[in-house]
Specification:
- The structure is a single chain.
- Helix content is 70%, strand content 0%.
- It has 220 residues and is an all-alpha fold.
- The model has no long low-confidence stretch (mean pLDDT 90).
Amino acid sequence: MAKQDRAIRTRRKILEAAAEVFDREGYQAATITQILTVAGVTKGALYFHFGSKEDLAYGVLNEQRNEDAVRPQPVKLQELVDSGSVLAHRLRTDPLVRASVRLTLDQQAQGLDRQGPFRVWSASNRQVLEAARDQGELLPHVDPGETAELCVGAFAGMQLMSVTLSDYEDLPHRLSVFQRLLLPSIAVPSVLASLDLSADRGGRLIAEAEERTLADAAVP
């Protein structure tokens, strides 16, 4: 178990180093040598976990996923709200997630398939919206696929504006404003009244997820 824990910590250290270098240099200019220097590991250790710079980039890109903090909710539209709220908070606090989003939007990242995060998040949103439709939460005119992609595209634009103007400090507020404007156009009134659209929801959900992790680790 100790050996496995050490391997997990080493992999995380390498990913964090790659995130720092990708965020600072961009994918195209980043080098394995720079990543090794920041990580403080041997080339053998890096290649044990990641076969190439491209593999490292995909490891960083996967950090946008936030399943641990987004819990199933009786009202499915709350899950749609929560996925965006958690990502907005993580962009403010987690360098890996910041680097992941930068990679996704990096037009100079030649040879790197950056469609994955967009497609995965769009598909996840569509699944939630279809469940919301099946539970009678959506207005009749709402198309789950179109709405899913609208949410992803709007978030991409909001985060780019936010990082430029405030280094992500105002992103939770911007997202909360967007959600308050969007949801009345897609949700039935009775559902709308039950949603928590507060700007601090993402932070609260992440704190709860961390508490669950600690509690699970304490169980013998």
